[in-house]
Amino acid sequence: MIDPSLKRLLQGLRPDAGLVVLTGAGISRESGLHTFRDADGIWAQVRLEEVATPQAFARDPTRVQGFYNARRRAVLDPAVQPNAAHDALVRLEREWRGPFLLVTQNVDDLHDRAGSQKLLHMHGELLKICCAACTRIDRFDGDLATDAICPDCGARGTLRPHIVWFGEMPLFMEEIGEALSGAGLFLSIGTSGTVYPAAGFTAEARSNGAITLEINMEETGGRFDGGLYGPATQTVPSLVEFLLKEVQ
Ligand code: APR
Fold this sequence. Notes:
This protein is an alpha/beta fold and 248 residues long. It has helices at residues 4-11, 48-51, 54-59, 61-75, 84-95, 110-114, 173-181, 201-207, 232-247, and strands at residues 18-23, 100-104, 119-121, 124-131, 137-139, 159-163, 183-189, 211-216, 226-229. α5 runs parallel beside α9 (232-247). Adenosine-5-diphosphoribose binds next to loops.
């Protein structure tokens, strides 16, 4: 699966190079969760302006809470489990000799359940809620009502999903910038590369001298040094095996 041109590209990589991995909804697709922009994606079912902005929440909190309650229940479905791509990234984190960071745009907990530790959820997490009054963030796996009472400060109606909505600042940007500045290899897995600032990470990594690879079902049109195309449950384990056996 790793073609000769990709092998040549990677064989120049230092075994102790910094490695940054960015994942998107495509890595969770084979676990049974919808992506956003595929034909059967979430944004083909509902307009993001109606459920994924602070304005939507202010306008119709019941609609927004209902949207995230349904996605939270979907993630908690016993049939939804980490897949071979999530597991391969855990192996890569454990065995890679250089610095490693996994940045995910995903709000599901599949990387967490697979065992990823060096993991940053830059768009928040479905299984957490935060209080607009006291800013506490707590784990939460039920349905959130619009008049729920904050368990920490007692305020009513201030609890919201711990999700970064469009127009809000993604999380952990400083840590991500530091990791990208030292990266020798940047892997972009299962993301359309359409939403900034994540979509800008490839260029940032390249400007720091990193090799950049796209792992997807198809080319997204982004500028990468190389790519590996097919279902993530096949491409990611193959790439991890190559990196650990041939590069390290
Ligand atoms: N294996 C690998 N890639 C896949 C697979 C698969 N089995 N299935 C789909 N993909 C790819 C698609 O080709 C597409 O490029 O995953 C990508 C999913 O793209 P999007 O649906 O746009 O999801 P993502 O890139 O994560 O969206 C980024 O946009 O709506 C916001 O906050 C939301 O975090 C999300 C952000």
